[in-house]
Amino acid sequence: xxxESTAARTPRRSAGTTGTKSTAGKRAPAKKISAxxxxxxxxxPELVQLLTPEGKRVKSAAYDKYVAGITPDELRGLYRxxxxxxxxxxxATALQRQGELGLWASLLGQEAAQIGSGRATREDDYVFPTYxxxxxxWCRGVDPTNLLGMFRGVNNGxxxxxxxxFHLYTIVIGAQTLxxxxxxxxxxxxxxxxxxxxxxxxxxxxxxxxxxxxxxxxVYNAPVVFFCQNNQWAISEPTEKQTRVxxxxxxxxxxxxxxxxxxNDVLACLAVTKWALERARSGEGPTLVEAYxxxxxxxxxxxxxxxxxxxxxxxAWEAKDPILRLRRHLEASNHTDExxxxxxxxxxxxxxxxxxxxxRAMPDPDHFAIFENVYADGHALVDEERAQFAAYQxxxxxxxxxx
Length: 403
Ligand SMILES: Cc1ncc(C[n+]2csc(CCOP(=O)(O)OP(=O)(O)O)c2C)c(N)n1
Ligand SMILES: [Mg+2]
Fold this sequence. Notes:
- The chain is of the alpha/beta class.
- Helices cover 43% and strands 8% of the residues.
- The strands form two sheets. It has a six-stranded parallel beta sheet with strand order 1-7-8-4-3-2, sandwiched between helices. A two-stranded antiparallel ribbon has the order 5-6.
- Helix 8 (208-219) links the parallel strand 3 and strand 4.
- 40% of the residues are buried.
- The site of magnesium ion has 6 residues, from strand 5.
């Protein structure tokens, strides 16, 4: 019997809803699954890290050059981006709890992965996000209030993707990697030197769409960066249920490089993504970046992670907090003073207020907006459906009139 077949026979461990029976016939408390620590930051020689959790700058022969010219002002800028993104995210969670949003997917803990990679992009690059990339949206200049309309149920997206080269949020897991690959193939055919970046999660890495996009982008040498935020969980499924090898190693089988970066280290994420985008621009094809990070909050506001993971796991990751680590670095380098932090605090509060007021003031949706932008030039079937819907709406007016 092989090791694999023994493993396959091991009864599935519970995710909190069932437990193994004790001899007394009572259910034993369900065991909480903890994500594999095998390749955790600090213990993985292949992990690219430029800032330790204590904020100490460490050298990297391969990646230092991508952040060599960074100024204190730019470092403070990265810190500001992360703080404001976290503040926005906390406000959105609160708004959902107050009934102002139907749902929210928090990015808490993933600020460095998103700000580092987002700030590495150039204006003409094109970004394909999932539903959690609020920090990347921030870097692209999408007004944060626009991210909330879909979660409030008043629009189908909330921004024009072409205004900021930031595609609409994609809920269909992994689908945007195919869109990004097709877009990147188009960029190459146009002879442009822009690059494309597709975000996806550890869970999405199991999707056929992601496998197909890896194959196509490799054989067509598409200028695309696959940025996987491995936040250890796909709702209640740990990464060990998605893969037998570290995710970044998957790229090798498709014929392009894969790198694992400390996803809580904003400098490392900036450097590695710059490198990968440069590869894309110079015709070297796709790269897989696995940002090793942690989803500190729930999957969405509809989820309760205490049902399937241990508190100690979250606590261990708190020590690697992305914002705290850059703050320690800034303070140790004398790049900040109390005034900077006080101003940022005031700016955060103002952002929270602005978001709150904007959400409450969002108008009810135009019922017919759903028929817009289906096709560039309209379509007979869409016209027919619009007319049917108009008749349906009108039937309520008749009923009201008859009462
Ligand atoms: C094709 C598809 N299958 C299933 C779902 C339901 N679903 C929503 S989020 C999610 C987990 C995604 O996990 P991961 O890719 O790790 O991203 P994360 O939410 O952790 O950022 C699933 C299965 C979906 N939206 N689309
Ligand atoms: Mg995940």
